[in-house]
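Our platform keeps sequence and structure together, in a single record for each protein. Such a record has a labelled line for the sequence and another for the backbone structure tokens. The tokens are whole numbers drawn from a learned vocabulary of local backbone shapes. The remainder of this section carries one protein's record, kept here as part of the documentation:
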Amino acid sequence: MEAMEALSRTRVVLTRPSHPGNIGAAARAMKTMGLADLALVAPRHFPDPDATAMAAGAADVLAGARVFSTLEAALADCSLAVGFSAFWSTLAVMLHASPWHLGSAAAGAFGLAGAAGALAAPLAGRLADTRGPELVTRLGTGLAALSFLVMAAGVLLPAELQLWVIGLGAVGFDLGVQATLVSHQTIVYGLDGHARSRLNALLFTGMFIGMSSGAALGSLTLAQWGWTGVMLMSAASALAALAVRLWPARAAA
């Protein structure tokens, strides 16, 4: 039973396979070994009749294969979601503490300010169409990182000004996150149409994992290092996402 569970959790990743027949042969070998989770990173030709022919008896494995443009692309939004969730999951606790002693309604007001970032979605979509989604993802993650760093430095200001900094920071990083999400969906829709739904599901699954992790890490960080620690951790997650988005460009140079 444990062996079967281990097999169900095993993923086979083929990076940049050049011949579709190799994909089909891998699917057939996986079927023989009881494996079913196949991931393809930037395949040159897929789907393809050669892959189907070589996957005789393993059509289900081939049909379930997930396609990624790059390994990095599947991870970037997950990292950015960590900081996003850390902020919102700890904001009410921070505002309730000294020197503000504000209730949950105050946190809700900041939520309305952050929601203004959703207005960036149409603009981000148009910019992704004209200038390419890679540029928008880098701008979005960069804006999110800058917003978190500004809020971290805001603790040096008087308490009244800190609230203004948090409000502006919420607008800034929410705008960055929304722009990045729209651009990642543009990237997904530009991939193979047969895998589009699975890739979109993977994108949002990664975001939910990042948000869950961010909520847990945010609570722990707030207890140990306070609000400044949460903002620095959130900035680090955004910078990690930015580094992931910049990596393909450096590799191609």
User: Anything to note?
Assistant: The longest helix spans residues 196-252. The CA atoms of residues 51 and 73 lie 24 Å apart. Residues 249-253 have pLDDT under 50 and may be disordered.
